[in-house]
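step 3/5: co-fold with S-adenosyl-L-homocysteine
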Amino acid sequence: MKNIKDFSLDELKEEMKALQEKPFRAEQIFQWLYQEKVKNFDEMTNLSLELREKLKQNYTMCNYNIIKKQESKDGTKKYLFDVLDGNAIETVLMEYHHGYSICISSQIGCKMGCKFCASTGIQFVRNLTAGEIVEQIIAVEQDSNIIVSNVVFMGIGEPLDNYDNVVKAIRLINHPKCLNIGARHISVSTSGLVPKIYKLAEENIQCTLSISLHATNNKKRSSMMPVNDSYPIEELLQACKDYIEKTNRRISFEYALAKDNNDNLEDAKELVKLLKGMLCHVNLIPINKIEHGMYTKSSNENIMKFRDYLNNHGIVATIRRELGSDIEAACGQLRRQNL
Ligand code: SAH
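step 4/5: write C-alpha cells
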C-alpha cells in the first residue's frame, strides 16, 4: 500500500481524482495529517465515511512506533523509530533558545564511509521515502508535544545520495499547508556530492547548505572521507561558489576537529586561504569519539585557538554546542539499529 504522506499536495489531488473524489479533499486530508496530526483516517471527520473507507483501503499513514527514547541531561532527546519494515532509524530533538531543532535521517545506513562517523561501518539498506523522512518530525512533535522550528538533515545517511526524496521532503516540510517550516530554517548537510550540489542550486529552494569539509588538503580529506577521491576539494569548492552565486545563500562549512589530525594552526591557515572571500560560515565541531574510531577530540584550548584564528582572519567561525553526547545523540554518533 502507498504511504499517504509520500504525496505532494498536487499529487494527492490527482489521487483523489483517481478515486472519483473532488481534488479539494486533498487539502482537507493535508490539514488532518499535518496540522491536526491525526493517526488514523477515522479521525478525519469532515470526510464522508465512504471516502474514509477508500483511504483505508488504499493508503497507510506511516505512524512510526517508538522503540526507544533517551533523554540527555541537557534535554536533548534521541528517538529510535521502527520504520515499519523491520528497520530502525534515529532522530534527535534539541532545544535551543530560539526553539526546537530536529536532526533527521535520510537513509537507512550510509554509503559514504567517513572514517569518523558511526553511521558508517553498518550496511546500507535503503533510502527513506519523502513521507518517511517527514514522519520523523510529525512523530517527534506528537510525542514531545512541541512544534519544531528548525530541521537539519544531519542524521543517518547522505541526503544528496537520496536526492529526489530529500528534495521532495524539503518541499513538504516547507509547504504552508504541510509543516510550514521556512526554507531558511532547513539545513541540508552533505559530504560533498558535487553534481548534486549543482542540481540543488537549480531547485529554487532557500534552504541552507552545509558542507562537511573537515580538512584543507586532498590527502588529509581523502584519508578521512573516501568521497573526496571522487570529488576533490577544488571541485567541491567550485560547486559551492556556484551555489552561492545562484542562490545568494551563505554556505556553512562543517569542520570536525580531531586531535593531532586537522586541528593545528597550519590547518587554520590553509582553511582561511581556501575560504577567503566566500559568503560562508564555519561551524567547528569538537569531534565525537565513536566506537573503533581512530580520532579523538581536540583540546578545548586548540578548538578556541582555531576559532580565534579564523575569526581574526575574516572567516566567521563558531563552535557547535555539543548536545546529547551522553546518550550518543551527538554529531556522528547515530547508527542504524536493528529491531
Ligand atoms: N552525510 C551528511 C550528513 C550527516 S553527518 C554529511 O556528511 O554531511 C552530520 C555532520 O556530523 C557532518 O558534518 C559530519 O561530518 C559530522 N560528523 C560525523 N561524525 C562526526 C563525529 N564523530 N564527530 C563530530 N562530527 C561528526
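step 5/5: annotate
The two ends are 22 Å apart (CA to CA).
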